[in-house]
Structure formats: C-alpha cells, structure tokens
Amino acid sequence: MHCCESQGLGFLTLSTVLPSFNSSGCQNAENAVTCSPSEFPIIFCFFSLYLIAVAQGGHKPCVQAFGADQFDGQDPEECKAKSSFFNWWYFGMCSAILVALVILTYIQDNLSWSLGFAIPCLVMGFGLILFLLGTVTYRFSVNSEEKSPFMRIGRVFVNAARNWRATSSTLSMQLESQGCVPYQGPQEFKFLNKALLVPDGSEEDGNICSISEVEDAKAILRLFPIWATCLTYGIVFSQSSTLFIKQGGTMDRSISPSFEVPAASLRSFITLSIILFIPIYDRILVPTARAITTKPSGITMLQRIGAGIFTSILSMVIAALVEMKRLETAQEYGLVDKPKATIPMSVVWLIPQYLIYGVSEALAMVGLQELFYDQMPNQLKSTGLALYLSILGIGSFLSSFLISVIEKATSRHGHESWFSDNLNKAHLDYFYWLLAGLSAIALAAYVYFARSYAYNRGSSI
Questions:
Q1: Global confidence as pTM
Q2: Within this chain, do residues 166 and 306 fall inside the same structural domain, yes or no?
Q3: 20 to 30 A from 45, CA-CA: which of 8, 338, 392, 437?
C-alpha cells in the first residue's frame, strides 16, 4: 500500500460495507441486534479495523513529534541529525510498506490469511517491546506552563480583538511605562501586538499576554497560507491510487504468457522511487547544498516543499501525455468502443509518472512534516503534524468534489464525460492538464507566501 494512505483504508472500507451487515447475518429484535455465532468473526474483523483507524489517529502525528523531540535543536551536530530524522523516518515507513506489499501479499494469497495477519502482529509486539525498553533513554519535554497552549494562544486573539482600537503609539507608551523595550518582533500580523496591552475594561495586569505568547500565535497564523496553497498538492496526491490505476487497467500488463502485473501493484514504483531517492537526497544532495548555503538542512524546508510541488506538476504533465498516447493507440486499433479490450500499449509507459511522483512525495511530504513540526509552538508539535496530515485528507475530499463537478458538467447534452466508464472515450488527459494548471497557480501562490515567510527564532532550517 502506498505511503500515508494505509491509515484510512480500513475505515473507508467499513463505512461502505458495515451498513449492509444486518441484512446478511444479524437480526433486529426489539431494538437489539442479535447475530448468529458464525458472524462473530466478521464483527471482530470490523472491530479490529476500527481499532486500527483510532490507533493511527493518535499514533501517526505523535510518533514523529516524539522522535524529533529527541534531538537538541541548539546543538549543531544534533541539529543536522534532526534534519535527517524526517528523511529516514519516511524511508523506514516506505521500506516496511514495500516489504508488506511483496512478502505479506504473497503469503496471504498463496499460504494463509491467518499467517499473513499473525506476522505483522508479532512484528508490532516486538516493536512495542523495543519502544518500552528505550523508555529510560528518551528525552521528555518539560512543560513549564500551567495553562493549556490552546488557552494561551486563544487568549492572544481575544485580547487583540478587545484592543482593536488601540494604536501603535499606545502600545509603545504602555510598554515603556512597564519598563519593557519597544516590541522588536516580526511586523507581520501586527494586529496581534495589541494583545500586549491591558485589555479594555480590565484593571488587572494578569490578563496581559506575553511576547512569547504573541509570537506563538503568529507562528500558527504564518503556517495557514502555506497549508492552504498546498491543498492542490493534496488533490494531486490522491490520483496515484485512483486514476493512475484505471489507466494501467486498460493497458498491456503481461510480462510472460502466464503472468500479468496487477494494475494496483504499479504503486510499488512510487514506494521504490522514495526508497531510492531519500538516501541520495540525504547523503549527496543535502551535504552539497549545505556546503553552498551553510544551512544545516542544505536547503530550507519551504524550498524543499516548493521543489516537491513543482515535481508533482511534471508528474501530471507526463501522465497527460501518456494518456493522450493511450487514447491515440485505442483509436488506431479500433478499440474506442471496446472498453474491456486491452490496449496494445505496454504498461511500462506509466512507470515514469510513478517514479517522478515518488520523488515529488519524498520532497514535499517530508518537507511538510518537518515544517509543521519545526514551526509550531513547543507544546503543539503533534498538532502541527496533524495539520499537515489534514492537507492529504482535505485534498482527497476536494479531488472527489472536483471529479463530481466535472463529471456533471461534461456529461451534459449526451456528451461523454471526462470520466466515462469507457476510458477509451473518456478524457483523463484533460483532467491531468487541469490539475497541472491548478498546481502551477497554487505553486505561484505558494512562492509568494514562502518568500515573505519568517521562520521562528531557533528554527533548524
């Protein structure tokens, strides 16, 4: 399974299958549901999938934050290691997924499903033991603040709103009267500086926000333009597990007379591309860039994300060109009206778009992870990673919405939709060109906000 997609598959499967379960094995009796003994294994299976979905929701954003917390950002050597942590974490995850695709899939299909589930169960148990054994060596962040970080940052917005009429001169005068130096922080989101004043109608100084609280609130606001401009990347991200596979399903996938490559297995090339690219990036490209820029990470996190978005555009362009070639081949061989016929065009044509897509993911996804961890306030690191994950979730919903709108718009007056069931009459190439154009616009907006982005002090860029 493709990296970062696995956590939602079980939940989505349940939402589709579970509503029909009562009709097959369970009966309602006076508002209670009774099931025959033969249905209990199915119930346990569904319950286990729900547990996986819940566990992933807590594990996925926290494990990266906890791992990165083990590095001291003030130490030059550990700062470099921290920059590599996200690369190798993603490398390890994708390597494990590739092993699961190759080995576990074979075991489940050819030996035993029970054995196929038992092996990851044992591996997870071993991993849990290793995790617990390392407890004595972990670094834990000391929380010096009694108040919740959400309360502290929320108070900044509340106080700034209450003091919205205050002027800059009023702010300077009050700070001087308190013996504080004039505020020297970044001048973006200056309206939040008013939270440093005593709120109107309050006679107690205890309601005044500190400069660090104001800086934390600004740090969160600075991330939202980056988050919004990356949503288009989230749309592109969802195509590899949907339309790419539909393309491959119509093409010649035979390797030998007796073996045909499953269309879904082509996603393994994305994982393979990531596994090959990350070591090259971390061991060759980063040290080279580090020697030029003198930055611990070689290039900044925003530059890395921008390179990933640009590479995703190349992937969409190549996908559109390959689809145009596929449609031409179908027309040349008179297969336009034969949706189930195999197009005499090798599925190898799809490999470049998968490989470039993998490079894009290694750049953008890891860059987003590092940015949303590094730039969030200390007590909100895992929340930042959850915010990064929301790019993929919302991007998937936006992709479905966009496809629905285009489907309805292009199927009017008896015309074939861009997403016709007969792909030989459809126009996935138009959709890929559209995504490439939208991504180019989003990249331009991203560059605009990235150029004016002010990194937090002490950031490990």
A1: 0.78
A2: no
A3: 392
